[in-house]
From TrEMBL:
Keywords of the record: Signal, TPR repeat
Protein's name according to its UniProt entry: Amidase domain-containing protein
Alphabetical list of PROSITE patterns matching this protein: TPR (PS50005)
InterPro entries assigned to the protein according to its UniProt record, in alphabetical order: Amidase_dom, AS_sf, TPR-like_helical_dom_sf, TPR_rpt
Amino acid sequence: MASSGAAANLWVLLGLGIAGVVLAARRLRRPARPDLGAFIARLELLPPPQPPPPQAPHPLTGLCFAIADALHVSGYITSFGSLEWTKTHDAETQTAPVVSALVNGGAICVGKTVIDEMAYSIHGENKHFDTPTNPAAPDRVPGGCSSGSAVAVAGGMVDFALGIDSIGGVRIPGAYCGVLAFRPSHAVSSGGVIPVAPSLDTIGWFARDPSVLRRVGHLILRLPYMDSRPPRQFYIADDCFELSKIPTRRLTQVVIKSVEKLFGRQVTRVNLENYLASKMPSLRNYSNGHKNGDSKFPSLLALCNAMRSLHKREFKDRHMEWVNSVKPAVDARIVSNLSEDGDLDMDGCQDARNEARKALDQLLKDDGILVIPTTLGCPPKLNAKELSSESYNSQTLCLSSLASMSGCCQVSIPLGTHDKCPISVSFIARHGGDRFLLDTIQTMYATIQEQVEILAKSNVSSKQAMNEEAAEAAKEKGNAAFKEKQWQKAVNFYTEAIKLNGKVATYYSNRAAAFLELTNYRQAEADCTSAIDLDPKIVKAYLRRGTAREMLGYFKEAVEGLALYPSLCLIKEFMSFSFLPNELILIHGLFADFNHALVLEPMNKTAGVAINRLKKLFP
């Protein structure tokens, strides 16, 4: 009997163990949901009838969309990501103006989507309605606060969707789910929307197709359709890419190649940390306002601290009374964060915002684009430690604080996958540059995706990739030395770059500039020739080679040699022969370099002045 009892107990324990394994597997597997858990409510708001011909149809005809459940729809209770909120609020009597505008523009609204509780987090988790499943990486968070909208677009359930963006609520889930996500600089009507932090809030939107992103933007922001202008300058913020967990080359190379192919330009690399430090004195007040004050990026962190302080204060002003009334039902992490008191200088926050806008507007002007990573890298796994890591959250918000605090517009652009997870970069344009940014994405998106495919299929060895990245770093060090007038040091760095990757014309052209300063004209001429062989359109190399040849005394030799001839008219006599005197070849070489530069850049003043100078010598 004892043995049979022990056997029975063994079978019970074994059964419990199997049941535990099954339950754990189910939790890890996350059962499939028809709409990936993106929707809180399904509905249908239909557009008005089409106008009769010859009037144009509604601009968004044929599109359907969803809205984050912080926007009101008449007859529905807005949940604000909380079941407790629905219990304490009534159904709305009016629809948000931005939703009505889209419906009147021809689009069909099909539902309301999940957001983080009270739109407060950036990860996409929600204990009330469950976390929507990220279609691009089901075992990872979708990002927040507008998680459901991003999932609905990424899953192909709608053509576009609206979200709320205060501190990254549209851009972060767009990056994590692998779709386009736009935060505008223009204030979208806040009517019919539950505020989070009013001075930071705006309505953003997601789309898979850049033309849809642009059409929605033109309607929401009431932008005119005009001829687009190409961007003249792309600034890659190298220090921001140091924050990224993705190899820098994997993110930046696609942008560099796309810019070269479409516009024939090279990108400019900037250190945004140093730039902000020089332009924003108010940031010193926030250097140690939060943890991680010893960051190697004190200005970026300070801007982030100011944003987080402003976000918390404005949220508390709007919602703390309600939170206290239902406290046990609110996520403990939200309550804990709100309970952390600290002195907040509202005037200082506004100073930081004004300085941020002025600084970025000065950098970007009307036709510049700043390139940064949207997030730190791949989306964190569900229930991962990063989600509660102060360091991880702070660094992520450093990136989103640039647009949130400056009021610049920003678009997150998917760049394929890394380790089977979506990755992205962001383009930022100045405050008020929304149409310019939307047009730029429309122009560049296909080429960017083409370059993503090329990079994914390339068989470039990891060693070669590392060499190319190291060469770029050496070039930047050379540029810095050149600016400091340390000519030999600059030559050494450019030489290092050439050794690592000898196929980049810029490295030779830049070294030639340093050799000119060192009066080593023969080497400067040789370097320019190498640069031109690699890239026949590199204007600076023609100008520098022309200068080197002048300084080598080509014109002097030519003048002395031609004194042997009674008149330059004798040149015509040689045209019928298969040779020319060396003197005439020298003259031709001098003119040719500057002429080439003028052909490539007709308004180039340096080339024009040089040609006029030579014409006086050889009338």
